[in-house]
């Protein structure tokens, strides 16, 4: 990194100089970087984060003191805290997110791009002195297992204790990581974060300091992250979206692996046979619920390996192996409840949570829309105002979050702890579509599966700003997370199939839990009943389930699905499974519009898949 401005620094106080001299590592390259950042940002002091519980408790106590955290009553969520953010710092800021590759072309048409040198110069001006009056924390972390053959290290420098506490839940951090990194002089991703709120002499702090000017910036060639101005999750916990998706996708492209926005399920059939499946869904499609599903089908078991991110490597036999690089969940609270997601609730009920922007109850616990069927009579909403059911506004912010350690999930598969991951049998793409997309279908080949991913779509919901019910394309559910040119990303997927061979690649499925009947109701009950779809997928992989060839690949007939004990009307099931030529013909128009965005860069193999679909429509 080239953070220094060429002048001899004079900004470091004696305390910081001592803390640099007493760094708990001999890794001089790392200490040099920390010094460079300190010279630029001029913190009051430096803390080398050790990752211990004592440290967490101390920092949480300081956050309570500062008004950032409120300690909750232990009766419902032991050892848990709630934070209320600045109302303008509640979500990822995609319009302020940049991929600063050497060339604009390398960032592609789906990312914001700025020249890296220009961006660095602009951001250095913002970073200069930005940690005045604050502690600079140095967090050594590893994504995935420290025992992996290639541990994926990072170091986040941040001036936010909220970030330190959250990172301790979301990743493996601290002294052991630093030791292994230092002993092996390992490569690590440099992840620099500041809330951008210097505290000058005598200045009063606020509970959630941040800066109205925000930058979430990635330098993919350098594997570096520079984040400024926000304290919120995806903008500030840099191991997650910034590293494990954007930077890791670029690393995977160069190194022959994949970093994907996918949950991971372990499925066990009644004969005790197991398979692992990853699944990508755009937001607001019930991804967390699917990851934590309770099957309704007798004898079938699902366990969670991951709820958000899949890293897929290929072993020496070409077998794809998937790991969840994270150690915690940073889940959307609203809609997570005892009736819809009891497994998530049981994990949260064990305590050790950091909640953000949920509502506060009169007995010093927290509540959010959908947590319980019964709505409390009185709350303090996420903005600190009195709230009653008559208030006519949500009590919790729609993007309020729970941050919870994964090892508290009862249904966490033991294979979560496998350093090199588990064999991946299938990839499921899902979206929210009222029409067109059947309940489940199987792509005929890897290339067709990639085409399905490239054209993945979902209808917008009230969860995000803007019009509701509009079909948006979200390739592989990675639109905001592809750290380089999307056409190259599609090509990488196709190339991996050619390299490792069809027989090694996961089979690709497409699901839609949200199809409507002509009368407008949901055609499929969803939730635990989705286990019937999982069973069909499992049995297809085993070669024991039937299906019908359609325009959309192989789709089960009603006889091919296990509907034992399911209450569903004939017209509902028909609607769920229907493949209508007219709808798919209309879909092709939307697909063509989408593919145009990529111009001549789009791989020819994607054009071929598109033409094959057009041909099938013509013949139908
Ligand atoms: C986030 O916003 O920090 C985040 C985890 O994003 P998402 O829930 O959209 O995956
Ligand atoms: Na941890
Ligand atoms: Mn996500």
TrEMBL record:
<keyword id="KW-0342">GTP-binding</keyword>
<feature type="binding site">
    <location>
        <begin position="284"/>
        <end position="289"/>
    </location>
    <ligand>
        <name>GTP</name>
    </ligand>
</feature>
<keyword id="KW-0418">Kinase</keyword>
<feature type="domain" description="Phosphoenolpyruvate carboxykinase GTP-utilising N-terminal">
    <location>
        <begin position="32"/>
        <end position="252"/>
    </location>
</feature>
<feature type="binding site">
    <location>
        <begin position="527"/>
        <end position="530"/>
    </location>
    <ligand>
        <name>GTP</name>
    </ligand>
</feature>
<dbReference type="InterPro" id="IPR035078">
    <property type="entry name" value="PEP_carboxykinase_GTP_N"/>
</dbReference>
<keyword id="KW-0670">Pyruvate</keyword>
<feature type="binding site">
    <location>
        <begin position="399"/>
        <end position="401"/>
    </location>
    <ligand>
        <name>substrate</name>
    </ligand>
</feature>
<keyword id="KW-0464">Manganese</keyword>
<dbReference type="GO" id="GO:0033993">
    <property type="term" value="P:response to lipid"/>
</dbReference>
<protein>
    <recommendedName>
        <fullName>Phosphoenolpyruvate carboxykinase [GTP]</fullName>
        <ecNumber>4.1.1.32</ecNumber>
    </recommendedName>
</protein>
<feature type="binding site">
    <location>
        <position position="241"/>
    </location>
    <ligand>
        <name>Mn(2+)</name>
    </ligand>
</feature>
<dbReference type="GO" id="GO:0042594">
    <property type="term" value="P:response to starvation"/>
</dbReference>
<feature type="binding site">
    <location>
        <position position="283"/>
    </location>
    <ligand>
        <name>substrate</name>
    </ligand>
</feature>
<feature type="binding site">
    <location>
        <position position="261"/>
    </location>
    <ligand>
        <name>Mn(2+)</name>
    </ligand>
</feature>
<feature type="domain" description="Phosphoenolpyruvate carboxykinase C-terminal P-loop">
    <location>
        <begin position="257"/>
        <end position="616"/>
    </location>
</feature>
<dbReference type="GO" id="GO:0030145">
    <property type="term" value="F:manganese ion binding"/>
</dbReference>
<keyword id="KW-0547">Nucleotide-binding</keyword>
<dbReference type="GO" id="GO:0016301">
    <property type="term" value="F:kinase activity"/>
</dbReference>
<keyword id="KW-0479">Metal-binding</keyword>
<dbReference type="GO" id="GO:0019543">
    <property type="term" value="P:propionate catabolic process"/>
</dbReference>
<dbReference type="InterPro" id="IPR013035">
    <property type="entry name" value="PEP_carboxykinase_C"/>
</dbReference>
<dbReference type="InterPro" id="IPR035077">
    <property type="entry name" value="PEP_carboxykinase_GTP_C"/>
</dbReference>
<dbReference type="Pfam" id="PF17297">
    <property type="entry name" value="PEPCK_N"/>
</dbReference>
<dbReference type="GO" id="GO:0006094">
    <property type="term" value="P:gluconeogenesis"/>
</dbReference>
<feature type="binding site">
    <location>
        <position position="432"/>
    </location>
    <ligand>
        <name>GTP</name>
    </ligand>
</feature>
<keyword id="KW-0808">Transferase</keyword>
<comment type="subunit">
    <text>Monomer.</text>
</comment>
<dbReference type="InterPro" id="IPR018091">
    <property type="entry name" value="PEP_carboxykin_GTP_CS"/>
</dbReference>
<dbReference type="Pfam" id="PF00821">
    <property type="entry name" value="PEPCK_GTP"/>
</dbReference>
<comment type="similarity">
    <text>Belongs to the phosphoenolpyruvate carboxykinase [GTP] family.</text>
</comment>
<dbReference type="GO" id="GO:0005525">
    <property type="term" value="F:GTP binding"/>
</dbReference>
<keyword id="KW-0312">Gluconeogenesis</keyword>
<dbReference type="GO" id="GO:0006107">
    <property type="term" value="P:oxaloacetate metabolic process"/>
</dbReference>
<comment type="pathway">
    <text>Carbohydrate biosynthesis; gluconeogenesis.</text>
</comment>
<keyword id="KW-0210">Decarboxylase</keyword>
<feature type="active site">
    <location>
        <position position="285"/>
    </location>
</feature>
<dbReference type="GO" id="GO:0004613">
    <property type="term" value="F:phosphoenolpyruvate carboxykinase (GTP) activity"/>
</dbReference>
<keyword id="KW-0963">Cytoplasm</keyword>
<dbReference type="GO" id="GO:0071333">
    <property type="term" value="P:cellular response to glucose stimulus"/>
</dbReference>
<dbReference type="GO" id="GO:0005829">
    <property type="term" value="C:cytosol"/>
</dbReference>
<dbReference type="InterPro" id="IPR008209">
    <property type="entry name" value="PEP_carboxykinase_GTP"/>
</dbReference>
């Amino acid at each position: 990194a080239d953070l220094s401005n060429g002048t001899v620094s004079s900004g470091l106080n004696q305390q910081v100089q001592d803390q640099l001299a007493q760094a708990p590592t001999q890794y001089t390259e790392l200490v040099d970087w920390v010094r460079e950042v300190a010279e630029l940002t001029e913190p009051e002091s430096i803390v080398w984060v050790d990752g211990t519980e004592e440290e967490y408790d101390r920092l949480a106590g300081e956050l309570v003191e500062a008004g950032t955290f409120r300690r909750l009553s232990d009766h419902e969520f032991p050892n848990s805290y709630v934070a209320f953010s600045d109302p303008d710092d509640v979500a990822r800021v995609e319009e302020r997110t940049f991929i600063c590759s050497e060339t604009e072309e390398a960032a592609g048409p789906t990312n914001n791009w700025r020249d890296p040198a220009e961006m660095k110069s602009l951001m250095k001006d913002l970073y200069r002195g930005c940690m005045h009056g604050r502690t600079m924390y140095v967090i050594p972390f590893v994504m995935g297992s420290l025992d992996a053959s290639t541990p994926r290290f990072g170091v986040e420098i941040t001036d936010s204790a909220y970030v330190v506490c959250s990172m301790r839940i979301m990743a493996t951090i601290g002294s052991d990581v630093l030791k292994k990194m230092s002993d092996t002089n390992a490569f690590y991703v440099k992840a620099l974060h500041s809330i951008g709120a210097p505290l000058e002499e005598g200045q009063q702090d606020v509970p959630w300091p941040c800066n109205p000017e925000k930058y979430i910036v990635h330098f993919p060639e350098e594997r570096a992250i520079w984040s400024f101005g926000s304290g919120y999750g995806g903008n500030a916990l840099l191991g997650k979206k910034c590293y494990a998706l954007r930077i890791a996708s670029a690393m995977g492209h160069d190194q022959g692996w994949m970093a994907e926005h996918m949950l991971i399920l372990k499925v066990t059939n009644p004969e005790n046979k197991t398979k692992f499946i990853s699944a990508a869904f755009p937001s607001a499609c019930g991804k967390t619920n699917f990851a934590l599903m309770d099957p309704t089908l007798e004898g079938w078991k699902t366990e969670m390996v991951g709820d958000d991110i899949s890293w897929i490597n290929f072993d020496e036999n070409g077998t794809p192996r998937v790991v969840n690089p994270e150690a915690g969940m940073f889940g959307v609270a609203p809609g997570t409840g005892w009736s819809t997601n009891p497994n998530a609730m049981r994990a949260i009920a064990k305590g050790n949570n950091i909640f953000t922007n949920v509502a506060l109850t009169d007995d010093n616990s927290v509540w959010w829309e959908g947590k319980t069927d019964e709505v409390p009579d009185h709350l303090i909403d996420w903005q600190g105002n009195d709230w009653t059911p008559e208030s006519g506004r949500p009590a919790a912010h729609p993007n309020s979050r729970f941050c919870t350690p994964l090892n508290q999930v009862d249904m966490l598969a033991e294979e979560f702890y496998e350093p090199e991951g588990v064999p991946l049998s299938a990839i499921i793409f899902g979206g929210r579509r009222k029409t067109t997309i059947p309940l489940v279908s199987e792509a005929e080949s890897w290339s067709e599966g990639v085409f399905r991913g490239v054209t993945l779509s979902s209808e917008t919901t009230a969860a995000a700003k803007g019009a509701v019910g509009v079909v948006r394309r979200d390739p592989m559910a990675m639109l905001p997370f592809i750290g380089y040119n999307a056409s190259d990303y599609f090509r990488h997927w196709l190339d991996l199939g050619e390299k490792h061979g069809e027989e090694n690649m996961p089979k690709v499925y497409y699901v839609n839990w949200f199809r409507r009947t002509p009368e407008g109701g949901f055609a499929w009950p969803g939730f635990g009943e989705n286990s019937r779809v999982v069973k069909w997928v499992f049995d297809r992989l085993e070669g024991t389930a039937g299906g019908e060839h359609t325009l959309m690949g192989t789709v089960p007939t009603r006889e091919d699905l296990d509907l034992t004990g399911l209450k569903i009307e004939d017209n509902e099931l028909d609607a769920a499974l229907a493949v209508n030529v007219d709808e798919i013909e209309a879909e092709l128009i939307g697909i063509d519009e989408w593919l145009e965005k990529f111009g001549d860069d789009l791989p020819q193999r994607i054009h071929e898949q598109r033409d094959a679909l057009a041909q099938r429509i013509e013949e139908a």
